[in-house]
Task: inverse folding
């Protein structure tokens, strides 16, 4: 069985972009692949976090993995810090990643160019830790949203380099970026990615938003004055983004079919249909989320997941340290 691995940072609450770009694929693939899905809590402290809030977000993140349909009987779900090998291989990967490579990573460059002060060293080197997260488990595929593809490509480059230097150490993973929904945009500013750091809060639908709030966010999404539902990201970015959401939540309905469905109808009708789809999804997720809170399944999932993940990670780290010449016995 081929293996698939991915992670999500529990920075703030999970949102519709996380679901459409990443989470739903973990769920879709869990029958066919050996899925490893982890909560990247080392990655989220690359920016300042409030400890109490972080703790709540961690729990919520696991609960939402489960509520979105990940099944701990099929997938291995774990917390990154429960497997200490991540940090250790992360350091080794850091020593094999060039500063020139890190300088090219757009996420860091973006933050730097915004003039943000006191950016941490961890934020700069985080792609090396991400490479370790991946390579510890030798996955075939890494399903991610568009913004993370560059990091998976860096992982490949560094892994290939180390394979040349030390012999065949790592399996070279492939990023898996879906054709539709890999970059869901903000509803209030479709030139920006839907993100947890949305200052206005209007452009981002959180999976735990109450349904009324979620509906309002869709209904007030920025569109245009062309008045026809047509897929054209350049000239109709807002409408095209809503079409991506609608398609993703309706069995990948082709854009041409969506255009036909709303031919001659106004944006009001279209937005209402998008809002209905979003609310149906959120209602189902939140119902399961509430059941999960009191079931004790969160703790069991993490304990079982960490044991499974650790067994694999320990072996891989040993292999790497041995190849590099770091071990005595
Ligand atoms: P993050 O919230 O940055 O940890 O992202 C977790 C996963 O969700 C990654 O695979 C991202 O690429 C994906 N993701 C985050 N934001 C979006 C978005 N707006 N559209 C699609 N995928 C996203
Ligand atoms: N960096 C990813 C993000 O910000 C999260 C992540 C950490 C990840 N390690 C990973 C994703 C390994 C895939 C594989 O979204």
Result:
């Amino acid at each position: 069985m081929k293996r698939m691995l991915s992670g999500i940072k529990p920075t703030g609450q999970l949102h519709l972009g996380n679901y459409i770009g990443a989470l739903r694929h973990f769920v879709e693939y869990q029958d066919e692949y050996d899925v490893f899905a982890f909560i990247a809590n080392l990655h989220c402290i690359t920016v300042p976090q409030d400890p109490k809030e972080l703790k709540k977000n961690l729990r919520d993140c696991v609960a939402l993995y489960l509520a979105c349909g990940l099944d701990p009987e099929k997938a291995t779900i774990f917390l990154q810090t429960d497997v200490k090998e991540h940090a250790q291989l992360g350091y080794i990967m850091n020593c094999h990643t060039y500063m020139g490579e890190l300088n090219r990573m757009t996420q860091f460059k973006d933050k730097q160019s915004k003039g943000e002060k006191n950016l941490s060293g961890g934020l700069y080197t985080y792609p090396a830790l991400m490479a370790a997260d991946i390579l510890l488990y030798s996955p075939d595929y890494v399903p991610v949203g568009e913004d993370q593809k560059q990091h998976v490509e860096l992982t490949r480059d560094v892994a290939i380099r180390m394979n040349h230097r030390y012999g065949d150490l790592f399996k070279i993973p492939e990023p898996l970026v879906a054709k539709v929904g890999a970059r869901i945009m903000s509803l209030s500013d479709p030139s920006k990615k839907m993100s947890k750091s949305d200052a206005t809060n209007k452009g981002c639908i959180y999976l735990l938003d109450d349904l009324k709030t979620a509906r309002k966010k869709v209904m007030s999404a920025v569109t245009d004055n062309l008045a026809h539902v047509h897929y054209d990201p350049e000239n109709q970015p807002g409408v095209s983004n809503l079409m991506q959401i609608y398609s993703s939540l309706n069995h990948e309905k082709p854009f041409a079919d969506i255009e036909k469905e709303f031919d001659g109808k106004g944006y009001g009708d279209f937005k209402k249909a998008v809002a209905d789809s979003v609310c149906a999804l959120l209602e189902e997720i939140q119902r399961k989320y509430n059941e999960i809170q009191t079931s004790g399944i969160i703790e069991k999932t993490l304990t079982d997941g960490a044991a499974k993940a650790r067994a694999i990670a320990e072996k891989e780290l040993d292999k790497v340290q041995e190849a590099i010449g770091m071990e005595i016995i």
